[in-house]
Each structure stands twice: as structure tokens, then as C-alpha cells.
Amino acid sequence: MTQEEIFEKVQEVLEDALGVDDDEVTPEATLVGDLGAESIDFLDIVFRLEKAFDVKIEQSELFPDSVLNDPNFVQDGKVTDAGMAELKSRMPHANLDEFDSSRKVEDFSNVFTVDAVCKFIEGKLAA
Questions:
Q1: Alpha-carbon distance 112 to 94, whole Å?
Q2: pLDDT (tens digit, 9 = 90+) per residue, 55-65?
Q3: For residue 13, how far is the Cα from the chain centroid?
Q4: CB contact at 8 A, 121 and 53
Q5: Cβ-Cβ contacts under 8 Å for 116 (sequence gap 6 or more)
Q6: Nearest CA among 2, 23, 25, 19 for reference residue 117
Q7: What is the DSSP string of 16-28?
């Protein structure tokens, strides 16, 4: 599949899962801040992506929130150096540069952009 075909399918999945319009689902749109996704929506999104692309996505593979609940990786509400290394190894599909500058746990949801989801799917399909 081409990048454009992947984007179009991801766009459709997000429109259906979140009840948003296609013009809102841009590559730079964040799932939480821009598209209004809540934690329960992430399960639905994963399920729909698995169906749309015929792939298996393990729990916390796309959204590794378990890192944020680990005291080895988070201290005083900020992700540690070890935590950043873990996130970078588990999320090669996401641009973590902006998050790396603040490292505040509450800012982590901004990492989940439409583009990050597309890159994740590209990686799954290539594997």
C-alpha cells in the first residue's frame, strides 16, 4: 500500500471511531487534543485498525501508556531519561522531539498524531 492509501484508511478509521469530519483528520492532528479521543476510544481505534489493515496490534504496542505508570520511567510527573529511551525504542513511529523538551506526563497525549498512526501502520505492514 502507498502512504496515501494508508492515510486514507487511517482517516476513515478515525472518522468512524471519533465521529469527526475528514477535513479534521490531517497528518498533524493530535488524536486527543484535536480530534477529541478519550482513553476508551484508543481500544476502539486499535480494533478498527486491526480490521481495516488485517494486522494484529498487541496491547500497548501503538499506545505504550504502561511506560507512564512505571516509577522507573516517571518521577515527579516527568518522564526520566530511562523513560524517554524506552518510549523511543517502543515508538519509532512517533515524533517525540517536542515531548522530550517538556517530558510532562500530561503532555504525552500530544505525541499521538494521525501521522504517527500512519507510520505505525506502515511499519506493521512492512514487517
A1: 7
A2: 999 878 888 87
A3: 13
A4: yes
A5: 91, 93, 94, 95
A6: 25
A7: HHHT--GGG--TT
The CATH class for the domain spanning 1-56+112-127 reads: mainly alpha
State the cell numbers at 101.
523538551
pLDDT score, position 46: 95
* Residue type, position 31, single letter: L
**98, 105, 109: which is closest to 78 by C-alpha?**
105
CA 21 vs CA 36, 37, 53, 83: distances in Å: 12, 13, 21, 35
When the pLDDT of each residue in the chain is averaged and rounded to a whole number, the result is 94
pLDDT in tens, 15-41: 999 999 999 999 999 999 999 999 899
Domain boundaries, the chain: 1-56+112-127, 64-109
